[in-house]
Design a protein that fits this description.
Elements (H helix, E strand, L loop, with lengths): L1 H24 L6 H26 L10 H25 L6 H22 L7 H20 L2
């Protein structure tokens, strides 16, 4: 009985090791078409997010600067555009996306969410930490624009 248990345990250990080896070292390969399609998809998502963030972070309150309710609504829309834009981008990056583009888009998406979360917590664009996030996002945006050409 002990010998049978030992054989079953060794077989299970060998199967687990083989499964781990396969999952770690056998990455799927993608065709040039799949990589190109993934690039087009993520670059199109960037265009949508770029437009949405630009539109919603540059709105003016409908009643002018003294319109408190309008100011709060504009600020809320800007924060939603930033945070949701980041989430949307993360959802559009897939395994076939070229690595340099995927990394830049993920970093940009996380920066957008950080900017939105900090703004929700009351951070002003003039504060050093928020200004650094904005600068990083701008730099990544330019890099992604080049990678999407």
């Amino acid at each position: 009985m002990t010998v049978i248990a030992l054989i079953v345990a060794l077989a299970a250990l060998a199967l687990a090791g083989w499964t781990l080896y396969r999952s770690e070292f056998s990455k799927p390969s993608y065709s040039d078409t799949q990589r190109a399609d993934a690039k087009v998809k993520v670059c199109a998502a960037m265009a949508v997010v770029r437009k949405g963030v630009s539109l919603n972070t540059n709105l003016q309150p409908p009643g002018g600067p003294t319109d408190v309710t309008g100011s709060l609504a504009v600020a809320a829309n800007a924060r939603v555009a930033l945070y949701d834009g980041g989430q949307y981008l993360l959802a559009k990056v897939d395994d076939a996306t070229p690595a340099d583009l995927a990394d830049a888009v993920r970093d940009f998406a996380n920066d957008l969410m950080d900017i939105g979360a900090a703004a929700t917590a009351g951070a002003q664009n003039s504060e050093p930490e928020q200004a650094a996030r904005l600068k990083d996002a701008d730099s990544l945006n330019k890099r992604i624009t080049e990678l999407c050409k």
